[in-house]
Input
Amino acid sequence: MAGSGSEKRQRNIICSVRFTTTEYALVCVNADQASLTVASYLRAAGAKLQLPPAGHCPSIDRQMTSQLMAVMGEAATAFRDAAHLVDPDLAETTMNNINEYRIVLFESMGRAP
Output
């Protein structure tokens, strides 16, 4: 525990990064698979360092993720049924985004979409 406080004091530079929702989801999945926080994962990947040993990062809640995938499936069905009410380009973009999110969730659980 003493080492963690010392590490925090040594890291005095903060770097902000912007991600798309899909990019951030992929980063989170990769960090989770390495059992690291997103910050630790990005620090190691960005500096091309060997990933640190698995830290104190909770793994993905599989039950919650399954529930989220089910709700997204229901939302996609509802949106598909109402797609004729909105701009066709918006409908296509929205459906593509929902599909990408579901794929990321499947992959985060080690399952094929």
Notes: The chain has two domains: 1-59, 60-113. The chain has a mean pLDDT of 78. Helices lie at 2-10, 21-33, 38-46, 62-82, 88-108. The first helix runs from residue 2 to 10.
